[in-house]
Write a structure and sequence with these properties.
The protein has 190 residues and is α/β, with parallel strands linked by helices. 36% of the residues lie in helices and 19% in strands.
Length: 190
């Protein structure tokens, strides 16, 4: 789906940078804001790509109600104070340093989307949209849920991929669009 979205955006004339989180060399264990933990070169390059992008697309599965641990580790290590947000001295407020960008989530799951929405109340969607991206100023953030994957036919899976390509094409057709697509499960970009 990540590759299809990127292809659609490229077909429409957008510039795209593709990040495959699973192919990056970094320690996903975050030691805390006070610890000395320099960014690995792949994370520094990812930060540059995110800063470059006007639209961020995240493609990932829901595992146990939330994003996979590797994606969470990527966010913990890259969305740091001074880069993604900045606390204000003597204030409970903060500055959103990634403002001016929009976001889009393409999320697969084994639960039916209605179940994820009404029974578990979409904890993973809220975490990514509200507690991470919007906290850092990325908005609007659109969410697309695809599931249940486990029981989906090949035709349905192909339809979801085609839908992702169409979403990319529509987004890519907007003037001035540039996308970085962090995708923990997709193949590396050429």
């Amino acid at each position: 789906m990540a590759r299809a979205y990127a292809e659609g955006a490229l077909d429409a004339g957008a510039e795209v940078r593709f990040l495959d989180v699973g192919q990056l060399a970094f320690d996903p264990l975050f030691l805390g804001y006070g610890a000395a933990q320099p960014l690995e070169p792949d994370l520094a390059a990812a930060q540059a790509d995110i800063r470059w992008a006007g639209h961020l697309v995240w493609v990932y599965p829901i595992w146990w109600g939330a994003m996979p641990a590797l994606l969470k580790g990527f966010i913990d290590r890259t969305f740091l104070p001074g880069y993604a947000f900045k606390y204000r001295a003597g204030s409970p407020l903060w500055d959103r340093l990634l403002a001016g960008r929009s976001g889009e989530l393409l999320v697969t799951m084994d639960s039916p989307p209605w179940y994820f929405r009404w029974v578990t109340r979409m904890p993973g969607h809220h975490q990514m949209k509200k507690a991470i991206l919007e906290y850092c100023g990325i908005r609007p953030v659109r969410v697309h849920s695809f599931g249940p994957v486990r029981t989906a036919s090949k035709e349905r899976l192909a339809g979801w991929v085609a839908h992702a390509r169409d979403l990319g094409r529509r987004r890519g057709a907007k003037p001035g669009t540039a996308s970085a697509s962090p995708a923990p499960q997709a193949p590396a970009s050429p």
